[in-house]
Amino acid sequence: MVTKLPKVDVVTIGVGWSAGIIAAELTKQGKKVVGLERGKERKTEDYFMAHDELRYAVRHEMMQDLSKETITFRNNDKMRSLPMRSYGSFLLGVGVGGSGAHWNGQNFRFLPYDFELRSKTIEKYGLDKIPADMTIQDWGITYDEIEPYYDQYEKMAGISGEDNPLGGRRSNPFPTPAMKKTEAMRLFDEATKKMGYHPYVQPSANLSENYTNPDGISRVACQYCGFCERFGCEYGAKAEPGVTVLPVAKATGNFEVRPHSEVRRILYSNGKATGVLYTDLTTGEEFEQSADVVVLSGYVFTNVRLLLLSGIGRPYDPTTGTGVIGKNYAYQIRKGRATGFFDDHKFNNFAGAGGLGMIIDDFNGDNFDHTDLDFIHGGMIILGQTGQRPIANNQVPSGTKSWGKDFKDASLKYTNASLTVSGEGASMAYKQHFLDLDPTYNDAFGDPLVRITFDFEEQDRQLTKYLAEKCEGILKEMGANHVDVSGDLGPYNVAEYQSTHNTGGVIMGADPETSAVNNYSQMWDVENLFVVGASSFPQNAGYNPTGTVGALSYRAAEGILKYMEKGGSLI
């Protein structure tokens, strides 16, 4: 029997960055918001003295239980899809704070080019530059339009950084200064300047100094302990929903978080969402939570899957190219890199922070000429110093024996004398890359799992090789005595960790025929349903997605308030 609960103004599905930002903004305006989260509640105290690499980084303490719900994967539609039963290519966070609790804190604004990718590419290089099966789209919003929301997000999170010489304009400086520049970063800075490039310190959600944000939330500076990615921050120095926006929402008295609540369906009638059906995972009871506005703010796969399970929106058909739900799934290109081994330098590689590093954007977006290249877009090149923990870091030069005295000697010699420079490339959308419901495999409730159909394309192979060559050149200029290069890209392998930067499936645009949401993240087909997150990206840029998710969330919050006042489509 389903228990019907009293109606609220807004219900969010998931309680991560998007839901936290929206809840904070709406509850400050007196709106009653309920946040449903399948995982447990979390607080900073949970992470005290928890620098346990085995527990968190290897055994994935903060991640979703794949035995109960996972994804299935295939490279193409001629293959049988199979479930991912152990973590590999990406990590699916669970619990209050979502993936925002265990992220590194690497924070970026996308380039102006990213938001008008298709039109700008055609304008400069012609339509023939875009392969026939590549389905990239403009976002339906420009950089100048989204810039104020980037600014709002950065002030809330206290983002530390310095201006990107090749980035979009900023209406305000970063709220906190750039993080400390280590010896490795100094070498990268000097070498890339000599090469004519434009280095800058990476924007970081790890605070460079104590900071109080516009909501009155005070946090302390980063300690450079090196335990950011896959870990919660015991200092609260890393911006995450639990130490920024969620306390603001809770303080209003208008926000309720319900952990251990698995949303099974979005309820829908007469063209509008009426609420959600969820199961209390502690008791097995089912509840119906009615709401005037439903905000689908889960991870990419959750957003797509719930829409398909609920029968909302037009499922994407890769054969005809029609439909929008599941369309334009994209990932991140992270295989182009080089590792340098130094005989004359020592670095404190054990120390670091998730967002500590130096970057150049000379080969990102359209900051370089693509006329004679077999790919579009590009990626940032980064020397990151996230902290080398003891278990998963043991780099030795190629040609070293993999066991015995030689291996041990090389391991000790290069523990603090090796550096990796990496390319993080954009991932373009293709007709044959999509998300749908698996016809065979179900979750613990008997509902179909979401299925990924994806593989690397020639675009990705060419981009990987190009970025790897640039990384190699930088390390040689830095003085590395031996450089190993990784520039060959084989088929996509879901079993090998690459990044958790999945995007697309409920994409944003200006045309209801080719997109699922408008630039307020409001569904074209269901005016009181807002779908917020990286699922909105029509393709992925050469950066980490979180900063853009944050900006879109602030815009969505503004849109929801407008909708609650006037109703109807916002565009």
TrEMBL record:
Family: Belongs to the GMC oxidoreductase family.
Any matching Pfam family: GMC_oxred_C
Gene Ontology molecular function, alphabetical: flavin adenine dinucleotide binding; oxidoreductase activity, acting on CH-OH group of donors
Keywords: FAD, Flavoprotein, Oxidoreductase
Domain Glucose-methanol-choline oxidoreductase C-terminal: 439-552
Alphabetized SUPFAM superfamilies for the sequence: FAD/NAD(P)-binding domain
InterPro entries membership: FAD/NAD-bd_sf (IPR036188), GMC_OxRdtase_N (IPR000172), GMC_OxRtase_C (IPR007867)
This protein's name: Gluconate 2-dehydrogenase alpha chain
Lineage: Bacteria, Bacillati, Bacillota, Bacilli, Bacillales
Domain Glucose-methanol-choline oxidoreductase N-terminal, first and last residues per copy: 221-329
Superkingdom per UniProt: Bacteria
Species this protein is from: Psychrobacillus psychrotolerans
